[in-house]
Amino acid sequence: MKLNAFPLNYFKQIWTPSKLFAERRELNVFQLFLIIVFLTSLMIVPVSIHYATLDSFPMEGTFKESYQLVDDSVVQKMEQMQITDGQLEGPAFEIEKAEGIVGAGLSSDEVETALKADNALIFQQDAFLLKEGSKSIATVPYTKDVSFHQAATVQAFKAELSRQWLIQNQAYLTGVFSLLLFAVILTINVLLVAGSALFLYLTKRSRQTSITSYKESVSVMVSCLSLPTFAAAIIGIFRFDIITMISIQTIGMVLLLLLVYFKTQFRDAAFKKESIYTETI
Fold first, then answer.
1. Are both 182 and 240 inside the same structural domain?
2. What is the DSSP letter of 137?
3. Dihedral, CA atoms, 43, 49, 50, 53, nearest 10 degrees?
4. Could you give phi then psi for residue 88, rounded to 5 degrees?
5. For residues 262 and 217, what is the distance between their CA atoms, to the nearest angstrom?
């Protein structure tokens, strides 16, 4: 396999500042865009891992009014319930409040009536229903280890509701956040590369640089973005913080560009002189 074929030529050139600059003409526009997409995908790996391994999710942001229906009276009523293999059994109840309705063990007609309220939390035999204003009604099946009927506090009860909802929706949540952040980070990367490449391209007005086209500038900036992105993705896997990851990526790109300038002064002559000196030694 030829080492100058894409993508091997890309991976070959990013490891040293001198090689990065010297081989800036090796990649075409389409390949450069593919690399940006690839680097963005690496940044999304920690995002997917983070949301796929969550064990709790702040549901108050999604079902704020419905969650406020849970109070001590609801917890006390649910303590009388039993859940065996994901099946709810116990005395039926219905609590009407100004904000909405909480009920358990209701008949089909009673459930239909309760869901006409602005907000509702209904515990059925094998699932609970969440209604929040005009949003679609969420149906969350019980898992075999469901334990909100054993919760001693409102906080513990809400935490178990959140856990049950997360188990049901974790794949969807992971996909949505991954796609959303992919779009955001891809936009940031494109703007970052395009903007910094423009400033680098303007140096061609000086006779002290060997950069002759905007594509060459983009190639240099994409290569400068590569190693910092690898580092940000690895760090993000062990300590997820998207702001920190983007900061590492951006600052690393700038530092690597400065290192390229220090090694080459953006001139091919400096690189060739260094190569000749190395071979002589």
1. yes
2. P
3. 180
4. -85, 130
5. 16
Q: Supply 66's token pair.
A: 């419905």
**Which of 65, 48, 85, 67 has its CA nearest to residue 170?**
48
Query: Same domain, yes or no, for 85 and 158?
Result: yes
Q: What is the pTM of this model?
A: 0.79
- Asked whether 271 and 264 are in contact (CB, 8 A), the reply is yes
Cα-trace Rg, the chain: 29
Domain that holds residue 142: 64-168
Secondary structure of residue 104 in the 3-state scheme:
strand
pLDDT digits (tens, 9 = 90+) for 83-115: 887 788 889 999 998 889 999 989 889 999 999
User: Are residues 164 and 183 part of one domain?
Assistant: no
Q: Structure tokens of 2? A: 């030829």
pLDDT at 47: 94
Cα-based angle 216, 219, 224 (whole degrees, multiple of 5):
130
